[in-house]
Amino acid sequence: MDDAASSASSTQSLSAKYQEKMKRLRELHAKRNEARMQNHKEVVEEDKRNKLPTNWESRKRQAEWIIQDEAARKEAETKGKDYERMKLLNIEATEAERIARKKRSKQNPDPGFSDYEQAAIRSYNRLVKNIKPNMEAYEKAKEKLGPAFYGDRNTIMHGLHEDRKEAIDKMVTNLEKQVAKREKYSRRRMHNDDADIDYINERNAKFNQKLERFYGEYTRETKLNLERGTAI
Questions:
Q1: Over the stretch 111-159, which tens digit does the pLDDT of each residue have?
Q2: How far lies 17's CA from each of 24, 26, 120, in Å?
Q3: What pTM does this model have?
């Protein structure tokens, strides 16, 4: 009987150990599967982040700030309060100075001449900035012209649009300002008596100087051959 009892006790002990090991094994399997799923989720999220634009976070913060600002503005208008004044009351002096400095830097100071492309871009931005659209005239023209208002490659715009006298006067005024500004900054160069005379007036001389500056190195040999009479 003692042997049978001892054998039964040993069998129960082995069975308990086996059950404990199987339980731990199942827990390890569950943890491994959980870790695998978590890793897969992280990989997917990282792939999404990599596909986003580089400035996504800053754009997201800016969009959230705009939404909050609009909500606060509407709330202030509902209460009949001046929202801009409320904002200034809640801004620190250093932050207000930073905003003012940023506004001053955006006033488009003249950086001087770099090339004709940049000069044309600055002129275009300046003219567009001064345009005040007339929505009433816009709607009238849209109603009058119909589909031709937007135009396409088959639309002949000549004769459809009539320039207003105010617009023409504005263009003339702007051109006169440009001429006055050029005359103010232009200066007469010293005349060189030893230089070749290849121009008929001062304007033509300036034009030839520009040609020489940009294309002189490519045409110098041909010019010399023409002077010597050896050109073919």
A1: 666 778 888 888 888 778 777 777 888 888 888 887 777 777 777 767 6
A2: 11, 14, 87
A3: 0.31
Domain count, the chain: 3
Q: 72: Cβ–Cβ under 8 A, 6 or more apart, which residues?
A: 83
Tell me which residue range forms the domain holding 45. Answer: 21-52
HSE (CB half, 13 Å, CA atoms) of 64?
6
Q: Which residues contact 160 (CB under 8 A, 6 or more apart)?
A: 145, 148
Q: Are residues 138 and 173 in the same domain?
A: yes
Residue 51 has φ and ψ, to the nearest 5°, of -80, -10
Beta strands, E only, the chain:
none
Same domain, 175 and 215: no
SS3 186: coil
Domain assignment of residue 87, yes or no: no
- Same domain? 137 vs 165: yes
